[in-house]
Design goal:
Order of helices and strands: EHEEEEHEEEEHEEEEHEEE
Radius of gyration: 21 Å
Structural class: alpha+beta
Number of strands: 16
Strand content: 25-35%
CATH topology of one domain: 2,3-Dihydroxybiphenyl 1,2-Dioxygenase, domain 1
Largest sheet: 8 strands, mixed
């Protein structure tokens, strides 16, 4: 006869931070949009250099380019160069292979701001227009083998706490503040970071990100009641730019968010990613696609 186990459940503290597992309302941070003045140089940097894959299904000719990077994208419409005020964090399959690709494009990039530096556990890269990318190998970001892992933005002193309050209360995203850094969870393994600095911060130039949220209407209602919706795009999307302190309404920072519902046609779209380690000189049939 089976006897029920009446042993009390162990309740002693375990070395786990359960809050790390919280996803919150923001399901995914999907793309970064940066305008670029030259599509040829953009392709050379984002595709040949970083190892991204030009989206084969959505084509804009030479006026825009979508570059797949794991489950995320860079959107690169033609225009004056925009600069992210901080750095973007990427996960790539191999830092050694990344350096080989960067060396290949160094000559045509010689009169631009392009460059890179190898550090023990990362490669720090500058694009032709000065945007900074910190690249890690898989393992540095649990759950990601290729993609945009974080976006780190410089903000004024005293801004981190109100920014964290904004994301917690308005967007329902887990947010932490420590030593002047606000870190906001995006989905299961991505982060938005807002880092206080006493240095000069460039004026905001209109670059934006896109996010998907499960609770779509409540943030919209809060923003609309305060006149903070900057674009009513369509049924499944709106935009806002001002990050304000929910307590005082004071502006804490600016970053345009393209907010999409889970009914958006592009939600969870499969993005094609090539095996960037393979090229004309080392082609092996059947190894064309990136496999995490």
């Amino acid at each position: 006869m089976l006897v029920a186990d009446t042993t009390p459940t162990r309740t002693t503290a375990l070395p786990y931070d359960r809050e790390i597992e919280d996803v919150g309302n923001v399901i995914a941070f999907e793309h970064v949009n940066l305008t670029v003045p030259d599509q040829e140089f953009a392709a050379l940097f984002y595709v040949t250099g970083l190892g991204g894959t030009r989206d084969p299904y959505v084509d804009f000719g030479t006026r825009n380019m979508w570059v797949n990077f794991g489950d995320q994208q860079f959107h690169l419409p033609k225009g004056r160069p925009q600069r992210w005020r901080g750095e973007l964090g990427l996960v790539v399959p191999s830092l050694a292979q990344l350096e080989e690709r960067l060396a290949l494009i160094a000559r045509p990039m010689k009169d631009t701001e392009f460059g890179w530096e190898r550090q023990p556990d990362r490669v720090v890269v500058r694009c032709p227009w000065g945007n900074r990318f910190t690249c890690h190998e898989p393992g540095a970001v649990p759950g990601m083998s290729l993609g945009i892992a974080w976006a780190d933005t410089q903000v004024a002193p005293g801004s981190a706490a109100p920014i964290a309050r904004f994301y917690r209360r308005v967007l329902g995203a887990p947010a932490r503040v420590e030593d002047g850094l606000a870190e906001i969870a995006m989905g299961c393994c991505q982060r938005l970071r807002f880092r206080e600095t006493t240095g000069a911060i460039a004026p905001y130039d209109g670059h934006h990100i896109a996010i998907y949220v499960s609770g779509f209407s409540a943030p919209h209602a809060w923003l609309a009641a305060r006149g903070l919706v900057s674009e009513e795009s369509d049924q499944h999307q709106y935009r806002f730019q001002a990050l304000v302190d929910p307590d005082s309404g004071a502006l804490a920072a600016e970053l345009e968010h393209e907010v999409r519902s889970l009914h958006h046609a592009m939600y969870n779209r499969h993005l094609v990613n090539r095996n960037s380690a393979q090229g004309f000189g080392n082609f092996r049939r059947g190894r064309e696609a990136f496999v995490p």
